[in-house]
Amino acid sequence: MFLLRLRNATLLALLTLGCLLIAGCGEKPQTAAETAPATKTVYNWKLAMTWPSNFPIFSDAVDHFAASVKTMSDGQLLIQIDSANKTKAPFGVLDMVNAGQYEMGHTASYYWKGTEPSTMFFTTMPFGMTAPEQYAWFYYGGGMELMQKVYAKHGVYSFPGGNTGVQMGGWFRKEIKTLKDLKGLKMRVPGFAGEVLAQLGVVVTNIAPGELYTSLERGNIDALEWVGPALDLKMGFQKIAPFYYTGWHEPASELQFLVNRQAFDALPKNLQEILVTAMKAETLDAYAHMFNDNAVGLASLRTEFPEVKLRTFPKEILDALKQANQRLVDETAAKDPLFKEVLDSQRAYLAKVRPWSIVSDYAYMKDNQEN
Ligand code: CA
274-332: per-residue pLDDT in tens? Predict the structure, then answer.
């Protein structure tokens, strides 16, 4: 009570002092126009996503992000979401955000490798960093700056947008024991990993997600990769391919938010901060959501489909994949200075953080596998 009275007395003294310092203070009654809050501009934005509506985890994350921005901005920044069902252009997101047709996009950076090979590094690279290592690179190792440098010429800012963690190496109808088993094997695998596998004799194709199950079932392809148990089991691959391999090719697939530069720069500072903070929060949420659902998926795979055999590729194959990958990235780097700049940054960062990953997470898990 005493403290409260003291605080009130101090406040009164300060107000009085303020009135003495400000000329005219307290002399004139305020008009209604002066007391009414200023009308705030409402920004109506649109976001195009590569995913169809109700796509597990990915579209949930975007919905949650938009709702969060609306609440935090008190209705001043509204983001309408258009799924791939509406845009009919799942791989046109970069162009549409660049053109200002959409202020934002949610997608994955490696889809733009045909336009700009160095965009692949901001999703994942075969034998690259794990998700914690890659987040450290983005936020504290120069990754964000390099990503803006790559995307500046495409008229957009790019931000991390959630991570799948290590993706599984794929579903195979036959066991892969030696390099010979890969010769002529028909496999759906997109991105840089496809180019690496092609070096080992795999016949690589890319097939739309909706046709994957039928293609594998009918034998048009012998193998495919998708994501991990969280999403793969919903596709039903476990019913038609008995060998499920651990991953090497997408160790930390980061999703991506794109923001049109002009639209972002035109926002007031507080809304920019809300947007950036909401994207970061959603990134963590999507990563945790995916980790949870992968764990749940693996458990149900083991109980409901015990005939599925989990395998890791033999060392002979992993060594050959590693060599082919290194050769291919070095060839691309020799032709593309920006690709080389990002490659050098990631290689140096991996060399810096991997020893800590091994001494911390790896050492801990290696000795506690009974969990
Ligand atoms: Ca994949």
Answer: 999 999 999 999 999 999 999 999 999 999 999 999 999 999 999 999 999 999 999 99
Task: Note residues around ion ligand 1 (Cβ under 5 angstroms).
Answer: 167
Q: Which fold has domain 167-249+307-335?
A: D-Maltodextrin-Binding Protein; domain 2 (3.40.190)
**How many CB atoms sit inside 10 A of residue 183's CB?**
11
Give yes or no for a contact between 103 and 45, defined as CB atoms under 8 angstroms apart.
yes
- Give the phi and the psi of residue 22 in degrees, each rounded to 5: -95, 120
Ligand 1 centroid–CA 27 distance in Å is 70
CA of 144 to the centre of ligand 1 (A): 23
Contact call for residues 252 and 165 (beta carbons, < 8 A):
yes
Give the relative orientation of helices 337-357 and 315-335 as an angle to the nearest 10 degrees. 140
CATH number attached to the domain at 43-164+252-292: 3.40.190.170
CA–centroid distance, 317 to ligand 1, in Å, is: 19
Distance 193 CA to ligand 1 centre (A): 9
Q: Which residue has the tokens 């509506």?
A: 53
Cβ atoms of 171 and 224 closer than 8 Å: yes
Nearest to 271 by CA among 115, 42, 83: 42
Query: How much distance in Å is there from the Cα of 159 to the middle of ligand 1?
Result: 20
* CA 151 – CA 227 distance, rounded (Å): 26
Residue 109 Cα to ligand 1 middle (Å) = 13
Distance CA 62, CA 179 (A): 41
- Asked if residue 274 lies in contact with residue 72, where contact means CB atoms within 8 angstroms, the answer is yes
pLDDT digits (tens, 9 = 90+) for 231-251: 999 999 999 999 999 999 999
Give this prediction's pTM.
Answer: 0.87
